[in-house]
Specification:
There is one protein chain. By secondary structure, the protein is mainly α. It has one domain (2-121). The protein contains four helices and no strands. The longest helix has 30 residues, at 33-62. The two termini are 22 Å apart.
Length: 124
């Protein structure tokens, strides 16, 4: 499971940097300032949770049986897909996808709760 989260982090990190550069260079002239800020929020949350996925992957190398770390990583990945993905589709395609963005935010919050509980249970 550690390998999966680390690979997801690599893909997410690459795409987050690419999307951030895309926003800075290609979208700046095409999107209104407010929509550009929405897109950049998606990139920011994606990159922060990419770092979290790296942490989860590394911790799972030490604690491979930790169910809470695995759940935390899954929630971070799902949150990136729902939260950041919905912001990207809103700004690039104009699609509003209902409650998907807040559901992604809830995934992030639950992921951090699971991460915290798992960290509290670490020995040593």
């Amino acid at each position: 499971m550690a390998r999966i989260f680390l690979l997801l982090a690599a893909i997410s990190g690459f795409s987050g940097v690419a999307l951030g550069a895309f926003a800075a260079h290609a979208l700046r002239a095409r999107l209104p300032e407010g929509m550009l800020a929405v897109f950049q929020t998606g990139v920011q949350y994606q990159l922060w949770h990419t770092a979290a996925l790296i942490g989860v992957g590394l911790l799972l190398l030490r604690q491979p049986g930790s169910r809470l770390f695995r759940v935390s990583g899954g929630l971070f990945a799902l949150g990136m897909l729902l939260f950041s993905g919905s912001l990207y589709t809103l700004t690039l395609l104009g699609w509003r996808v209902g409650m998907v963005t807040p559901m992604g935010g809830v995934c992030f919050l639950l992921g951090w709760i699971c991460f915290g509980v798992a960290a509290w249970r670490l020995k040593g």
